[in-house]
């Protein structure tokens, strides 16, 4: 994607050929700041403190974290320690574990002297693979937006309205995004698409990140409070919902940013199609029941009790929005059961949110 006309990824190798650079997403939307990662500790901090976030980007960052670790010490013991440190940073997004396993598998097949070069090469492949997968998701999802636009035209509408939750755009991946990739493809194809952007408390990843990148790309959008989606659906102002996922079970349950489940319930009640866009590394084939089996991350309560914003004189400040002494709970994700999902948008096509639907897309996973 582009920032002010310049093609940009969320993570890339620095000019020196060994350090890794990222967009520090904690500084968005008001500041565009890049950060240099030089060590395993830097990569782990970037993931845990959410300088990078979004399941695919977490995976790519973890892969480069293993490369940085190998550069410091490529022994079996050191790589095991690095794996464990990175794996502990975020418990819910399955891409993290997937990428780490890919790195360990690649490094375990070569001599210790060759591991640094192998690590950097595999990390770069993981990043490039993510871009290709997300571009394909965009192509497949754009057909759904095209169909919704044709129906909207028949009603006399002048645009097709898509509601999304959290940030599943290119800032959540290496490039293109998952749920927002179809929107970019449709917009670039000339379809008049408008996006309802949930603010997505408590970290405001919709208002801060999705709105930021849609603004950069010139896609019409409106930021709304998290509780507005149901009202819009009741009044026919949402043609379809597209969200991302941090982990999808083999039966089609999806785990995404907290609040996604409520949007799916509202969509079901109002006959609004509810789609989930996911790259295949986000599928956890070892898990069936998402509600029972997926660990839900609980984050620092200050994300709920405090907010950061820009004052009228341009200063970035953090303020407390709750009373002194009031405790806060901060669950990061919820699970939307497969029965509420209209379809899964994958790099191989759109399928039903069911075991048979997923296996039709990925027959190699059949036991």
Describe this structure in words.
This protein has 367 residues and is α/β, with parallel strands linked by helices. The chain folds into two domains: 2-128, Four Helix Bundle (Hemerythrin (Met), subunit A) (Up-down Bundle); 137-365, Translation initiation factor eif-2b, domain 2 (Rossmann fold), CATH 3.40.50. The protein has helices at residues 40-48, 55-72, 76-87, 94-107, 115-154, 181-188, 205-217, 229-234, 260-269, 290-293, 302-305, 355-361; strands at residues 2-3, 6-7, 11-13, 20-23, 34-37, 160-164, 193-198, 221-224, 240-243, 247-249, 254-257, 274-277, 283-284, 306-310, 316-320, 333-336, 343-346, 349-351. The strands form five sheets. It has a seven-stranded mixed sheet with strand order 8-7-6-9-12-17-18, with helices on both faces. The protein has a four-stranded mixed sheet with strand order 13-10-11-16, with helices on one face. α7 links the parallel β7 and β8. α1 (40-48) runs antiparallel to α2 (55-72), α2 (55-72) runs parallel beside α4 (94-107) and α5 crosses α6. The radius of gyration is 20 Å and the shape is globular.
